[in-house]
Records
---
Amino acid sequence: MNKELALAIDVVRPLVYVVGEEEYKIVSDIVSKFIKDIDKKCDTNCGRCTECLKAVEKSDIEIFIYKTTAGLMSYKEWVMEFEKDIKPKFQLFQETLSEIAKVTPTNKRTLYILLDVDTYLQDTSSNINYIRKLKDIALNFYHDQNNIRSLIVLSSELAVPRKLQRYEEVIFYSLPTSEEIAQKVNQIVDDYNSSVSSASKKISKEYDPSVMLGLKGLTLFETEQITLTSIKRHKKLCADEIKAFKKSILRKTNLLEIVETDLSFEDVGGMEPVKDWLSKREGVWTEEGIKAEIPQTKGLLLLGITGCGKSHLSKAMARQWGLPLISLNMSRVFSPRVGESEANFLKATKTIESLSPCILFIDEIEKGFAGSQSSTFSDAGTTARVIGNFLTWYQDNELPIFIIATCNSIQYLPPELVSRFDEKFFVNIPSTRERAAIFDICLKRYKRDWRKLNISPTQLADKSALLTGREIDQVVKASIVEAFYEQRVKNKGKDKKDLTTVDLRQDHIEKVLFNKVPILKTMEDDIKYLVQWVGWDEDKKDGIRANYANRREEDEKDDINKLLNDVLSSKEDYIKGWHNKGSKK
Ligand SMILES: Nc1ncnc2c1ncn2[C@@H]1O[C@H](COP(=O)(O)OP(=O)(O)O)[C@@H](O)[C@H]1O
Ligand SMILES: [Mg+2]
C-alpha cells in the first residue's frame, strides 16, 4: 500500500485527497490494512470476497462509500452493488455531507470514502456550500475527542479548492509496481493456460524483457486489457501490441503528441560531444541497466542559437535509443482558468508516466515557463506553481522517462529549472568541419550526390562561416531552385524533357551563399547574452554553465570568439568583408 496514505490513516488525518486511477485497488488496499491481522480471510487479502467481508465486519473499522449514482453505502453494499438491488440513500452530495457531519456514537473507527466528487470541489462560486461543509467536517472530525473519524476524497482528477488547501492532505497514489504487474500478468496467463488443453497452445511465462518494461506505467486494469488482447491476437505477450496501446492513450489528451521521426545521428552534422554523452547513456533504462543499479539520467537541456539543430538532434536521439518521443506542449498546459494549469500539468505527467519508457521532449521550454519571475503580479503565481510541480515531478519520478528540453532564450528560463537538468549543452553555430558535414547531409537529403556533381562540402564550409544548420539547409534548397531556373532560361523553347534533371553546380551554391545574411546579424543581443551566460572556463577548455556542444579544431577555437566579437561589434563592415573573403577563396 502507498506509504503516505498508510501514514495519513494511522495518524487519523481528518481530510485526505487521494489522486489515483484505480479506485478498486486503492479501496481494497485501505480495507486490507484493517483486516490484515484478522485470521479468517482469503490468501490474497483481496478485501472483496465473502471471507474478507466477514473479516471487515469483525475488524474495528467501519467504512462508508459515496458515489453520486448510488449515494452513501456501507462498504459491503458497495462491494455487492451490482449483485443486489440497493436503494440509493443520500444521493445528493449535500445530503451525504450532512449525514457524514452527524455524530453517530460507535465504538469503531469510521472512514468515509467519497468517489469522484472532484466536480463539486472545483473553485467556483456554485460549489461554495460543499466546500464550506467539507471544511466544517474536517474541523469537526479533528476536534472530536470521542470518535475517530476521517474522510478520504478519491478521484483520478485533482481539485483542491483554495479554502481547503490548509486542511486537506493530497496524496498521489502511484501506479502499480513491477511486482504487482507481474503478478497480474501471471494470473491471467495461468487462467488462460488452464483453459487450453494442448500443451503446445500454452503460453510460456518466460516473457520478453521489453514486455514487462512496456507494461510499467499502466494501471492493473489496463494491464489486464492489453494482456488479454495480446493473448487473443498473438498467442503471446507482444511488445508491439503494448506500444500501440500506449500510443492510443495519447489520443485522449491534446497536451502531448508522439513525434514520429526517421532521423538518426547520421542525419545530424557535428555536435559530437552531445552525441557521445547520449550514446554513453543509451540503455541505462533497460531492465539490465535498472538491475545493475546504474544511476538514472533524468534530463538534458540543449540551449543555444536558433536553427543550429537542437530540435533536430532531439528527434534523432529518440530513434537512436529506440524509445518513443513524446512532445509536451508547455504553452497548452497553461490556461487562464483557476487551477486548470496545475491540473493540466498533472494530467500530462500521469499520461507520460503511463507511456514510459519514453523520451519526453519539451521543445522551446521557455515558451511555457517564461515570465515566472513576475508571475506573482501577472498570473497569481500559476506559472511559479507549475514550475514547482515540474521540479517536484522531475525529482521524484523513478520511472524510465528521459527529458530532453530545448531553449532558445535562456534569459526567460527560471534558474532553478535550468540547474535541475543533469547536463546542459550550449549549441553554438557550427564549426567549419560541422558545416561541411551539414552540407553533405543536406545535399544528400535533396538527393544530390555531391561526388558525382563535383561539389566540395569542405570548400563550401570554408565559405559559409557564421551560418547555422538551418541556413545551410536553406542555401542548398535555394541553390537547387537557382540551378533549375538557370536551366529553364537556357532551354527556353526547347524540349521540356531537358528540365527533368537539374545539374547543380558548386557555383550555384556559392552564389546563394554570397547573398545570404547570417541570422546572427539580426540577433546580436541574444547571442551576446547567451555566450556570456555560458561563460568560458580556460582550464577546462569548456563552458562554465553549459558544455559546448560543438567541437572546434585548435586553430578554430579563438576564431569563433573572434568571429562573434567581430559580428557583435562592427557588423556591417565585417559582414561585407567576410563575404568578399568568402567568395575569393
Ligand atoms: N547539425 C545539423 N545537422 C543537420 N541538419 C541541421 C543541423 N542543424 C540544423 N539543421 C537543419 O536545420 C533545421 C532547423 O534546425 P532545428 O533543429 O529546428 O534548430 P533549433 O531547434 O536549434 O532552432 C533542421 O530541420 C535541419 O534541417
Ligand atoms: Mg527548435
---
Amino acid sequence: MNWMELDQEYIMPTYNRLPITVDKAEGNYLIDESGKRYLDLFGGLAVNVLGHSHPHLMETLHQQSSKFLHVSNFFLNKPAITLAHRLIEHSVKGKVYFGNSGAEAAEGAVKLIHKWSKQQSEEKSGVAVLKNSFHGRTLGVIRMTRQPGIYQDFPAADFPVYEAEAEDIASLENIFNEKQPAALLMEPVLGSGGIMPLSSDFLQKAEALCRRYNVLFCMDEIQTGMGRTGELFAYQRAQVTPDIILFAKGIGGGLPLGGFIARSGLDGMFQPGDHGTTFGPSPLSAALGNAVLDVLMEQGGLEEGRENAEYLWKQLESLQQETGAIQDIRGAGMMLGIVLDADAKEVKNIQQRLLQRGFMINITQGTIIRLLPPLTLNKEETDAFVAALKGEIAREEV
Ligand SMILES: Cc1ncc(COP(=O)(O)O)c(C=O)c1O
C-alpha cells in the first residue's frame, strides 16, 4: 500500500507531509511500518510532553474508557472538574473554559475579552499581538496569527487586531496610546514564529503597561505550557500574573483538549449560551490531562524535564563552539530553535538525512530547526542526536 499516494489522493494537502507512515510509537521513538525507529524530537508539535505510551497515561486511558467515552456537557464531568481545579491551583485563581484545540482556546478567549471590553467602554475593542505570532487558523482568530501567507487571503472577523514588535515596549505603548485594545495576547516563546523567547524584562514591562492602560494581559501557553520550558507555564519564569492563560497541545496527553483559564473577576463573563462545544472537554481527554499533571507535578516529571533540557542545551552549545556553523540556539527548556549558517534547501537536506539516520526534527520559518522533544529525552538519546547533527552539519558544509 502506498500511503503517501493515497494521502495525496484523498486528503487535502494542508500540510507538507514527511514520507513516514508511523505504525507504532513507544517511549521517545516513532516506529514505521518496516520497523525502523526514529527518535521523536518533533514531539507531535509540542503535544507529546511525556513521549509515547507513557504507562500512567495508558492506564488512565484504559480506566476512563472502560467507564464511558462521552456523555454530554449537560452532566457533571468529574475528570474535567478535577483538572480545572488543579490547573487553577497551579496558576491563577479563577475559572476554566474547555474546548478541543488551540484555535478554539483562542476563539473562546476572544469572545470573553469582547464581553469584558463592552463592560469597560464602547471604544475599547480588539487585541494587540506580536509580529510573527501564532494563535490559530480558524477565521475568528486567524488575524491574530501575524505571519506572512497565513491570514492575508481570508476574510477578517470584525474586531481590530494590532501588531506590535516583540521586545519593543515602545511599539506596544504606541498602540495602547493611539488605539484602545481590550487585550494583549502573547506567546512567552514565539513558537512557529521562529522560537523567539520573550525576556522576563519585556513580559514584566508589558504587564505593567497593561495594568496602566486597563488592558487584559493574556498568555498563549498552547505550545509553551505543560512543563515545556521548565515550569508548568512559561509565564511563571517571568513572575508575571496573566488575566487569561490559553492552553492546548500537551495538556491532553495526545488527545484533543484546549481551553483557557480566566482569573477571578473575568470568570463570570460567560453565562449559559454564551459559548460552548459538544466535546468541551471529552472526559477521556480530561482524564489524560489529570494524568499529565500527575506525572509533571507529583511524580517528578517537571524536574526530570528540566534536567534533561539542561543537558541537551549543554551538548548543543558545545557543538556550537566546536563547529562554528551554528549561528544561534534559542528558546527555553525543551523548546529550541537552532539557526544554522545555511539556506532553506540545505536545512531541508539536513532534515532528510537525519530522518534516514532515525532522527525526526521539525523546521519552522524555512530555515530554523525546531526541537520540541519530550521532557523524557534522556542523556543517551541526546548524545546520539547531537552526534548525528554534528555529522550532518559537517556534510552539508554549512
Ligand atoms: C502558540 C499557539 N497558539 C495556538 C495554536 C493553535 O493550536 P491548534 O493547532 O490546536 O488549533 C498553536 C498551534 O501550533 C500554537 O503553537
